Structure formats: C-alpha cells, structure tokens
Amino acid sequence: MKAVRRPQFWFNLAMWVMTLVISSLLIQLGALVMSDVPTAGKRISQADFVNADQLADVEHRIVSNDKALLNTQRDIEDAEFVLSSRTLDYTNQRASFENWVKTRSATEADSQNAEVVARAQGIEELKIAERDAQRIIEDLRVTERSLLRTQQDLRTEEYAINDASFEPYQKARSREVLKVFGLRLALTLPLLLISGWFVAKKRGSQYWPVYRGFVVFSLFAFFVELVPYLPSYGGYVRNVVGILLALLFAHFVIKGMNRYLARKRSEEQRPESEKRKAIAYETAVKKISEGVCPSCDRRFGAVKLRKGEKPDEDPVDFCVHCGFCLFDRCTNCNTRENSFFKFCGSCGTPSENDPSAQVS
Ligand SMILES: [Zn+2]
Ligand SMILES: [Zn+2]
C-alpha cells in the first residue's frame, strides 16, 4: 500500500526526466569542450623522431646500389649468352676439324701440313675467345657479389637509423599521454568536486533534480572523458586508481551505515509519541503494509508470511523488536487498523495516534 499522492508520483517522474535532459545537454556541451582542447589533436608517430637526413642519405644509396646491381645482373645474362654461342662455335669447329683430319690421313700425305696447322690455329683462337667470355662473366659475378653485400650493409644501416628513433619516441609518447591526462583531469576534477558538494549539501533542496542532472553529467565525464585516458604504465595507474576508488566507496558506505545505526539506536531510546512524529506518514504506511517496522526497520512479523498472505492479517500489533505500536483499534467501532491511519476506515472517526490530530 502506498500513501504517496498521485500527482507526487508524476512530479517525481517528471523531475527524473528533467534530470536526464539536463545531464544529456551538459554531456553534449562537455564533449564539444573536450574536442576543442588542443591535446585531443594529432598523435605523434615514431616517424617524427627518425634522423631524416641520415635516412634520406641511406635510402638514396640503396636506390643507386640496387640500380647498379640490376645492371650487373643484366650484363651477366648478356655475357652468358655470348659464352654459350662461343662454346657452340668452338665445339662445332673442333668436331668438323677432327672429321677432316680423319678422312685426310687415310688418303693423303703430309703435303697439307700447313693447312692442318692453320685450321688448328683457328680452333685455338675460338677456344681463347670462349675463355675470354668466361673471364668476363667471372668478373661480373665478383661485382655482383660485392653489390649484394653492400645492399645488406645498407639495409642494416637503415634499420639501425629507424631503431634509434624508438626510445625518444616512447619517451615523448608517455609525456604526451601524461599531458592529455593532466588536462582532462584539470577539466573533470572540478566537476567531480562540485557534484560531491551537491550530493553532500543539496540533497534536501527543492532544486535537487537540477543538481542531480549535474551529478549525472560529472559521473559521465569521469567515466567517459577521464578513465579511458588514465596512463597505464603497465596497468599500475589503472589498478591503483581502481583500488583507491573502491576504498573511498567502502569508506563512505561504512560511515553511512554507522551513522544510520547510531541514529536508529538513539531513536529507539525516545518515547513513542516522538518517534511517530519523526516518521513520515507516507513512509510509515508503506513500510507497515510491507511488514517492516517503521521505527527499527526490521521485519515485525512473528512468523514468516506465506505467499499471498498480507501483513495486515498478521496478528502482531506491536513490533517484536522495539515495541513500536503498528496496529491499534478504533476508539469508536474497535476495528483493527494501521496505527498511522488518520481516520478509521470503517466509521471515519479520527484516530487517536495521529500526531497532527492530537490535542494536548
Ligand atoms: Zn520495531
Ligand atoms: Zn471506527
């Protein structure tokens, strides 16, 4: 059973809608501000830290070395073609000479010796030409090998130049991460402090729904605009911040619980008429209908209720924990009623327990 007035319910709902509208407008505004913060701009890259002159020089030398290598390899191909054709010439001439010598020796005398010598000399010249071609190829191969070695050396040099930029880049990167985080912290921390103050001081205010919008906004800013930018340092910062937040949360929850218990204990000491005045009418009606004592916040039923059974049907009239009067009887018709009801539900007689109706 709820004793809240119907318009009150709609008013609360409308106030929540207003809270969300205010916070979403603030969130959009905050996103605009964050996107205009200069640090959100260009990210530095490792290429910014390479010695550009050295690198350009090495790359230039690599290109010209590659060109020379390609030319040498083409020269080798050409020279191999020349060699194979000279080898072919030599073997053909030699074969025909050997045939000629065989046929000649069977029929003729040494009268043609001069011709034999001349032809043998021709073959010898072909052999020399073949060797020359081979030598050219060998020289080219030596050049090729040295060019390949130079290529390897240049690549190693290029790698070393790029590698040297890694450390300064890493340092600059972590500095930048820290700077971005610092700026974001400088923008977000005041919001959190202000909303912490609102929560502490303005919760009872008529304009709490407006302040609540600001609190929602600052929480959003904290989790979306700040937390993802925490520098990690291998997870240290993130874990430490998480632990600190958890401790802070536990601290406030424990403190709040202790305050609540102390308040309840001091309330229980007071006389019942004072207790009744301290409890809001709506809260009391709701709590009693749910089977909870509005004074000590404990379940008052002597037995656990079965499903479908209402606490009103429980025969308990007084809280078994603190003795608080939960149900009483109408002075006129003796009907059993919730002790907070202001009028008897059967005959309409004003209730005696109603603090506002009590006349001393
Ligand atoms: Zn009680
Ligand atoms: Zn009555």
Explained architecture:
This protein has a two-stranded antiparallel sheet. With 360 residues, the chain is mainly α. The chain has three domains: 6-43 and 200-269, no CATH class; 51-164, Helix Hairpins, CATH 1.10.287; 272-338, no CATH class. The model has no long low-confidence stretch (mean pLDDT 85). It has eight helices and two strands, in the order H-H-H-H-H-H-H-H-E-E. The chain has helices at residues 6-36, 52-107, 113-164, 166-201, 208-226, 236-269, 272-278, 281-289; strands spanning 327-329, 336-338. The structure holds zinc ion (ZN) (2 copies). This is Double zinc ribbon. Keywords: Membrane, Transmembrane, Transmembrane helix. The chain crosses the membrane at residues 181-199, 211-230, 236-254.
Strand order of the main beta sheet, please? 1-2
The CATH architecture of the largest domain: Orthogonal Bundle
- How far from one another are the termini? 31 Å
Low-confidence sequence ranges = none
Task: Please count the helical segments.
Answer: 8
Global geometry: rod-shaped
Question: What is the strand and helix layout of this fold?
Answer:
Layout: H1 6-36, H2 52-107, H3 113-164, H4 166-201, H5 208-226, H6 236-269, H7 272-278, H8 281-289, E1 327-329, E2 336-338
Antiparallel strand pairs: 1-2
Compact summary:
It is built from eight helices and two strands, in the order ααααααααββ.
